[in-house]
């Protein structure tokens, strides 16, 4: 059996000073001089300098001479200290350089490539930019922390169907597809299934999974496929229980990100990850509209909801008044909320619902759900929704479904705000929008 030198990550090279190791990675840059050859090799943990004197081994010099940027290679050599080297004061004096996969030249993108072109070559874009790779490390920590918190709070993780026999909620903004001899639909929300789980006696439900929205939106914050973080809580006393759960969830998550990636996020994104104080500010939609109209927004008073400009203005106002980057906007009118949101007993025209804004961007929608069968069917009828397409859903409420509420949070939007990104396209690996189904 052929024994190979164990692979060592670039970040661990200092632990192997004076030893012969193998580093596997990509050719970052080449500097080929008459007597010396300098090669920067990059793996997912960092970049190391390889220094070769041509006179030491001519066959090796020829191999290095034939390398191209982004070729996958294995370098075996001795780790030595060299204070002149900017990359940690270390370099590798190579014994062999093995070309595992030679990259074609020239590369199809560079630092001047536009955003759409970068999406076409996303694998290269991510590989060549440490900040892009850091994004997914942060995403992993975010999901891990959210699951950690949810489990500690007694949540059961569920995986709900993404194929539906009828269009969910209002039937709008859904993708229809052929399903054997009939039509099926991609789930635009796990909402109904979360509520079914509550009716099944699963006290607290938690899911991280794909969501599909057939929205012809071309904004920086919309996608046709995204990852949703969904929670449903049974036996609540009111919608406040749901908001309190989310603010604790986010505080725990951001604390984990700050501890794990705070320094790297500061270096690559110029963002300070801070843990928000509890509780988050709350403001009713009516109060928010009054504040914004006094500032000149919506001068005709025709808007019943916040548009993106209104969200940004409100967040700036709350930040100025309280110093807090988050704000819950509560009590949305019945007309702008789904039929299954519970209505206020004191103000029947309002729902017991909320949106959560973070630095001016909506990242969450939540509410207390209507759990009473007769009230729910009446609210569906008001919207012109027939009971037959909702039959399986409505059954859940006829036989003792408890009071409950929940929320849906967009993971990519959270990452977008957390890292100060300009577009949701940079907050996911492979973006899907109205005009993009590749790569």
Mind explaining what this structure looks like?
With 439 residues, the chain is of the alpha+beta class. It has helices at residues 58-65, 115-120, 122-128, 130-152, 191-199, 239-269, 285-294, 308-322, 373-382, 391-395, 411-418; strands at 20-32, 36-43, 46-53, 72-81, 90-101, 156-157, 163-164, 176-179, 182-186, 204-212, 225-234, 282-284, 326-330, 353-358, 361-368, 404-410. It has two domains: 10-101, Nucleic acid-binding proteins (OB fold (Dihydrolipoamide Acetyltransferase, E2P)), CATH 2.40.50; 123-427, 2-Layer Sandwich (BirA Bifunctional Protein, domain 2). Helix content is 30%, strand content 26%. Strands 6-10-11-16-15-14-13-12 form an eight-stranded mixed beta sheet, sandwiched between helices. Strands 3-2-1-4-5 form a five-stranded antiparallel beta sheet. A three-stranded antiparallel beta sheet has the order 7-9-8, with no helix packed on it. The two termini are 40 Å apart.
Main attributes?
439 residues; alpha+beta; OB fold (Dihydrolipoamide Acetyltransferase, E2P); BirA Bifunctional Protein, domain 2; 2 domains; eight-stranded mixed β-sheet; 16 strands; 30% helix
Can you summarize this structure?
With 439 residues, this protein is α+β, with helices and mostly antiparallel strands.
